[in-house]
């Protein structure tokens, strides 16, 4: 087996060990009663290698906040100022406010909770949501520690990142891989299901995600053989959304101590999101089931919408409370609701992963299975053809060389079986109203395909 050797591990100046950074549901600020935490940000603020040193800002339902600071390797028995800036470490554009100073111990450490007023918390929120960046600095002369706040949330909770995206990490699972690629020795795949909804025009990329283990090391990069369906990359307009799996890799002994980091727009601008993944369940090994079988057994219902001679959009809705791995093989025929429209047949194998009771629309590679009828458009609806596909057509579509042929050869070969035209009786294929029938070379290729598929060419008028 091959493994994903393109992963890299780097030390990063971000947050601390998992155990020290778990979210809590209640908190007590100095002089206040217990309150509910409604939003959390966090950053690493210690010296290089001090992964447990963090600044954690928690917004409370009272409108006030708490800044929890834990830092080591500072100057001993010293007083450090605490300043909150608009901007980022290395470019602190504007001082927003200063908090009470911190006194370090004789060992140069400090652990302290600082209260934020309603106005101060509002200032942090407005700057962070606007994408300006918010940084916290501890300073004593030339001794300085700085960290930029990143959103900190839990699985299943939607978080607004600036006014650009709403991001949700739906769930996280340990994954054995797709069977073709193995993880590197001592490592395991981790897959996270993410959902991104655009508030304004935005983009997304699977490379914007990484994992941070309990030692502070970051694991990022490409994995060969991502879990399907992956989000890949793309652009979204306001109101559009995308959902899919992000596949990463981390040390096996760190699987239950990982934090997912998401850097919107690859950190060119915008905030970072941190999500502790907790104890990872194993990815559900959903058994593969053929689409027709799943429909006939009531596990899914489908509805198709025409696109073109080569594409059909199929909406598949799961009716069961378990994950499904649907297999759509070549040779599945979809019948139109309009009698004068062509039926369509799948020409490529495709798998579709469905979560329990999930509905998903996929685009299928198809060809026409009724030469003289009208080409489908977006107003045409399709359902599964109840009659079984002819054995000859299945033999052709499953032939080893069929998938590598041009669409013209594929379509003319299918019509040879479904319509059995004469040599000059094919409907032309082309664009803008100009089309042509198969050339002599294409007819020769089709004849060879039939032989390889175990079909007798002399049984068809154009090939005899």
Report the radius of gyration as a whole number of Å.
29 Å
Uncertain runs are: 1-32
Overall structural class, as computed from helix and strand content, comes to mainly beta
Q: How many β strands by DSSP? A: 35
Q: Give the integer mean of the pLDDT values.
A: 84
Shape, please?
elongated
CATH superfamily of the largest domain: Superoxide dismutase, copper/zinc binding domain
N- to C-terminal distance = 46 Å
CATH class of the largest domain: Mainly Beta
How many individual domains? 4
Into which percentage range does the β-strand content fall? Answer: 35-45%
Here the CATH topology of the largest domain equals Immunoglobulin-like
Tally of DSSP helical segments: 5
Name the CATH architecture of the largest domain.
Sandwich
State the share of residues found in helices, binned by percent: 10-25%
Major sheet: 11 strands, mixed
Can you put this structure into words, describing what you see?
- This protein has helices at 118-129, 291-296, 391-397, 407-418, 440-452, and strands spanning 2-3, 8-11, 26-27, 35-44, 54-60, 65-71, 79-88, 91-103, 110-116, 134-140, 143-148, 150-152, 159-161, 165-175, 181-182, 187-198, 202-205, 209-212, 217-220, 233-236, 241-251, 259-263, 272-276, 281-282, 288-290, 300-306, 311-318, 324-328, 333-336, 344-346, 350-354, 359-368, 381-384, 429-431, 434-436.
- It is elongated and about 95 Å long.
- Helices cover 11% and strands 43% of the residues.
- The protein folds into four domains: 24-152, Immunoglobulin-like, CATH 2.60.40.200; 154-282, Sandwich (Immunoglobulin-like); 285-389, Sandwich (Immunoglobulin-like); 390-464.
- The strands form eight sheets. Strands 2, 3, 4, 5, 6, 9, 12, 18, 19, 22 and 23 form an eleven-stranded mixed beta sheet that branches.
- Mean pLDDT is 84; it is low at 1-32.
- It is mainly β and 464 residues long.
- Helix 4 packs across helix 5 (440-452).
- It starts with a strand and ends in a 12-residue tail after the last helix.
- It contains five helices and 35 strands.
